[in-house]
């Protein structure tokens, strides 16, 4: 499972010209689900998204998490994060999970985030979305559940 985590002062998603999700201060997280991902990957990604200390404290140091600042997370499914661009000019998405698996694990990740005490909003799975954000910093990190210890 791969995620791109961005600190935002605001973010939102439109589908078909209609607002479907909007957050204030927090994180916009794009999530790609691999075929071999499990609930353990969802839990690991959710824990990182909620607890990464990438918000500044009163001294200006990265020492606060989304949970600490009572922020929100906008979780957006994005299978293209799994594109393999090593050969040719057209990425291969062969490692991306089939839609029914990806949707279930995407929703499970959102549930884990919410159960950790952070308000989570989501995009619309498999829809063409317009995502807008105000990247605060910019602060952006890449998470991959294959990088976890023992994973």
Structural account:
The protein is an alpha/beta fold. The protein has one domain: D-tyrosyl-tRNA(Tyr) deacylase (D-tyrosyl-trna(Tyr) Deacylase, Chain: A). The chain has 3 helices and 8 strands, in the order βββαββαβαββ. The strands form 2 sheets. Strands 1, 2, 3, 6, 7 and 8 form a 6-stranded mixed β-sheet that branches. The longest helix has 17 residues, at 99-115.
Top-tier CATH class: Alpha Beta
Quote the beta fraction. Answer: 35-45%
Mean pLDDT over all positions: 96
Judging by the overall fold, what is the CATH architecture? 3-Layer(bba) Sandwich
Q: Classify the helix fraction into a percent range.
A: 10-25%
Query: Any idea what the CATH superfamily is called?
Result: D-tyrosyl-tRNA(Tyr) deacylase
CATH topology: D-tyrosyl-trna(Tyr) Deacylase, Chain: A
Structural class estimated from helices and strands: alpha/beta
Task: Write down the overall geometry.
Answer: globular
| Cα-based radius of gyration, to the nearest Å | 15 Å
Features:
151 residues; alpha/beta; D-tyrosyl-trna(Tyr) Deacylase, Chain: A; six-stranded mixed sheet; two-stranded antiparallel ribbon; 8 strands
Quick structural summary:
The protein has helices at residues 39-51, 66-69, 99-115, and strands at 2-15, 18-23, 26-32, 55-56, 62-64, 72-77, 119-122, 129-144.
